[in-house]
């Protein structure tokens, strides 16, 4: 049984890259397709608190009803923003990954490498779907120029 959970959207390239990086470490995470199985209020509040970020930082804008609902307006309370995310799960930014070390919104996808349990090195080279190298053949993170 794994101690890693990913709140995943298979239609999202970043989410697919994060899932692949987790699997490349030899882990078999619990995958929650949150658009099909959205978190309840308590779970969403727990995830946000564990990430230590403002509720607004978890809101996804692109490809969502964010603008239509006027969510950029500062009048919305955190509780109201969470209500919107519960009503429209597509507003929850992804992927959110929970490991024994931390909970993070893994954007960019390499962020997941910071929270994978050690010593779980990557099992081999890894490149994102767009071809960007993330891990070399020795399982080490590739430095960005």
Overview of the structural elements:
This protein is an alpha+beta fold. It folds into two domains: 1-34 and 94-145, Glutaredoxin (3-Layer(aba) Sandwich); 39-92, Glutaredoxin. The chain has three helices and six strands, in the order βαβααββββ. It has helices at 13-24, 41-51, 78-87; strands spanning 5-8, 30-33, 96-98, 103-105, 126-127, 133-135. The strands form two sheets. The chain has a four-stranded mixed beta sheet. Strand 1 (5-8), helix 1 and strand 2 form a beta-alpha-beta unit.
Give keywords.
3 helices, Glutaredoxin, four-stranded mixed beta sheet, two-stranded antiparallel sheet, alpha+beta, 23% helix, 145 residues, 2 domains
